UniProtKB/TrEMBL annotation:
Residues in 4Fe-4S Mo/W bis-MGD-type domain copies: 8-63
Portion of the full-length sequence here: 203 to 889 of 889
Family label: In the C-terminal section; belongs to the prokaryotic molybdopterin-containing oxidoreductase family.
Keyword line: 4Fe-4S, Iron, Iron-sulfur, Metal-binding, Oxidoreductase, Repeat
Superkingdom of source: Bacteria
Protein name: Formate dehydrogenase subunit alpha
Keyword S-adenosyl-L-methionine found: no
EC number: 1.17.1.9
Example of a GO MF term: formate dehydrogenase (NAD+) activity
Length: 687
């Protein structure tokens, strides 16, 4: 009905869901959003997916919270902003005095703008005096950022989406763009129809896998082994780009020796891909110039997530597929502003612009007029570990529902229960707030504030206010700034709006200095963009890598995950997303998409379903070593026997009760993509 209301105003803004960053026109009437239509932009070229098109009814959902609240005697009570700020300021001061600043942490998120994430990390470092600041990138693409930074010098996608139309070959690893990045998925399909080759590396036969030239159905968690085998083929068969290596790559002799142990014939059984297919994929990738890689969380959310991305970069270095249009390594960022939240400094180890304390610390100190915290910060998972150990006492989560979304819910619950203060800032009483919240701060939605988001291809785009927030809800930047002032920081937190905050970011981040609001009013630009005359940088590493003139191949032994199937837990479960929903469902389950796909599902192969006498649609109990969940079964030929796939969007279905606490061996990201489970009918039976 709402979409039939006559629109009074159209406001151009950016989609709140995935990292593609589609531009949209937001139609409003009577102070409400009543329609969304696509805008022409270099990213989405007049298209939106089913998520973006219906992404507005959450703003007026019945359970939207528009007043600050304190939990008193177990009951949430509305209070004024003054009362909420006084309570938080006094509790934070008391906790800091008793346990020290490092007993407190702050979480930014993709739901907040760049400006708000910047203020959140400034608050942690300047007001609280701790580097305990992190964001949702920790659970998705921190492994990508780490791998790209380590090997090439910039922790972000090497190319713009426009390069899809300039490539000869697309290699997709652990991603399902037609569901999770649908507008990019459509561009990939069009490129393939025009003649680009397609290799898909994924345990499941996704829509793009079905239309690929080659589909390598790798066993979950065996990516390093598979990439090493492809690299071994490239070396053994002389498929190298000799000029590129001579001019720009070190370490070939050692690497060639190392990958001898990974001949396709030696690893085929372990990684689940026939040797001939591995060799064919290596030949196809090496022979296509240029060839472009995209990857998703199927590559990163493993104990060897960072090393999986590094092993993929090895292939690009060996074949010269970097530093040019239509080539490169491109993480498909899952959330609208997850690139921006980490880039703004919501990371315990780096400052705004992913700058190191050594290189940039003096500049920050001088501009902020404050000293920086001396101790190393804790990442999100380490904060929760410290909470369970009694060393961490207070957490402020801005737009991030960690309780149902982190792996191993039982451990997350133990950590949150051990905290003395949990501040939740969101649109709704999230699961984290309901179970553990002490204070709730009502935030403005994406349509009710100004700012910028940074998408997957390093493009900064405006978010524009179309309507007023309801009741006393406020933009995140206002909430953070007002609390900072209440805690005695009048200067440094006296911005008159997002543009002023962004101008401070531009002073501190050289690669973003040219991205003024005046320019962003009319265009969107990929950083690095160091001055206002600079056109932006769609392709990185053209003449030299950000880290220097030469990159070094990495020798990466395959390490099996400790999470292994057994007689009791014979299946390997992978979790992931569907086209209709987004992450914890906080927004998408309050839109018409809830009717389009009401429930999460467990996908099982027809062979396994027959063997276990399970029927399509029947509820099944899934048990792992860590917990259990019940989901309706979906029999799907896209799944191999012995493997399962579950979506995780409905917080009340608690799919993350199943996932383990194993983490990436370099950056501590959870291993969501490999859990040993068993499945049984809800009313008895078993396997
Ligand atoms: Fe575009 Fe992603 Fe939003 Fe869909 S969810 S409209 S692909 S930004």
């Amino acid at each position: 009905k709402r979409s039939q209301t006559a629109v009074e105003n159209w406001t151009r803004s950016t989609c709140v869901y995935c990292g593609v960053g589609c531009q949209m026109e937001v139609g409003t009437a009577n102070g409400q959003v009543v329609q969304i239509k696509p805008a022409a932009s270099p990213v989405n070229r007049g298209h939106l997916c089913v998520k973006g098109r219906y992404a507005y009814e959450f703003g007026t959902a019945d359970d939207r919270i528009s007043e600050p609240m304190l939990r008193r005697d177990g009951t949430w009570q509305p209070v004024s902003w003054d009362e909420a700020f006084d309570f938080i300021a006094s509790r934070l001061a008391a906790i800091r005095q008793q346990y020290g600043a490092d007993a407190i942490g702050v979480l930014g998120s993709a739901r907040a703008t760049n400006e708000e994430n910047y203020l959140a990390q400034k608050f942690a470092r300047v007001v609280l005096g701790t580097n305990n600041i992190d964001c949702c990138a920790r659970v998705c693409h921190t492994p990508s950022a780490k791998a790209l930074k380590l090997m090439l010098g910039t922790g972000a996608a090497t190319n713009a989406f426009d390069d899809i139309e300039h490539t000869q070959l697309l290699m997709l690893s652990g991603c399902n763009p037609t569901e999770n990045h649908p507008v990019v998925g459509a561009r990939i399909k069009q490129a393939v129809r025009r003649g680009a080759k397609l290799i898909v590396i994924d345990p499941r036969r996704t829509e793009l896998a079905a239309m690929a030239d080659l589909h390598l159905a790798v066993r979950p968690g065996h990516n390093v082994e598979l990439y090493n085998a492809m690299a071994a083929t490239v070396v053994e068969e002389g498929l190298l780009d000799a000029d590129f290596i001579a001019n720009r790559v070190d370490g070939l002799a050692e690497f060639s020796q190392f990958v001898r142990d990974y001949a396709p014939e030696a690893v085929a059984a372990s990684c689940g891909v026939p040797a001939g297919l591995i060799r064919s994929a290596a030949r196809l990738y090496a022979g296509a110039k240029p060839a472009m890689c995209f990857h998703g969380l199927g590559l990163t959310e493993h104990v060897q997530g960072t090393e999986g991305v590094m092993a993929q970069i090895n292939l690009a270095l060996l074949t010269g597929n970097l530093g040019k249009r239509g080539a490169g390594i491109n993480p498909l960022r899952g959330q609208n502003n997850v690139q921006g939240s980490a880039q703004m400094g919501c990371d315990p180890a780096t400052l705004t612009g992913a700058q190191s304390f050594v290189e940039a610390g003096a500049h920050f100190k001088s501009l902020w007029g404050a000293s920086l915290p001396a101790s190393h910060g804790l990442d999100l998972l380490s904060m929760l570990d410290a909470a369970r150990a009694g060393r961490f006492k207070a957490l402020w989560a801005v737009g991030y529902d960690i309780y149902p979304t982190l792996a191993h819910v039982a451990e997350t619950a133990q950590a949150l229960a051990a905290l003395e203060l949990v501040i939740v800032q969101d649109l709704f009483l999230t699961e984290t707030a309901k179970a553990f919240g002490t204070v709730f701060l009502p935030a403005a939605s994406v349509f009710e504030r100004d700012g910028t988001f940074m998408n997957s291809d390093r493009r900064v785009q405006r978010v524009r206010q179309a309507i007023k927030p309801p009741g006393n809800a406020q933009p995140d930047w206002w909430i953070i700034q007002t609390l900072a002032q209440r805690m005695g920081h009048q200067t440094g937190f006296d911005f008159d709006g997002p543009e002023a905050i962004w101008n401070e970011v531009r002073q501190l981040w050289p690669a973003g200095a040219g991205l003024s609001y005046a320019r962003l009013e009319h265009e969107s630009l990929n950083w690095p963009c160091p001055d206002e005359a600079h056109p932006g940088t769609p392709v990185l590493h053209i003449d030299r890598f950000a880290s220097g003139p030469r990159a070094t191949l990495a020798c990466l032994p395959f390490t099996p995950s400790p999470e292994q199937p057994s007689q009791d837990y014979p299946f390997v479960l992978v979790t992931g997303r569907t086209l209709y929903h987004f992450n914890a469902g906080t927004l998408s389950y309050r839109t018409p998409n809830a009717r389009l796909r009401p429930s999460d599902t467990l996908d099982m192969s027809p062979q396994d379903a027959r063997r276990l006498l399970l029927n399509d649609g029947e509820p099944v109990r899934i048990r792992s070593r860590y917990g259990e969940a019940v989901l309706p079964l979906r029999i799907s030929p896209t799944i191999k026997p012995g493997e399962l796939f579950a979506t995780f969007h409905r917080p009340d279905l608690w799919v993350n009760r199943l996932t383990s606490s194993y983490r990436d061996n370099r950056v501590n990201s959870p291993e969501y993509k490999r859990t040993a489970v068993t499945v049984e009918p809800v009313f008895g039976g078993g396997n």
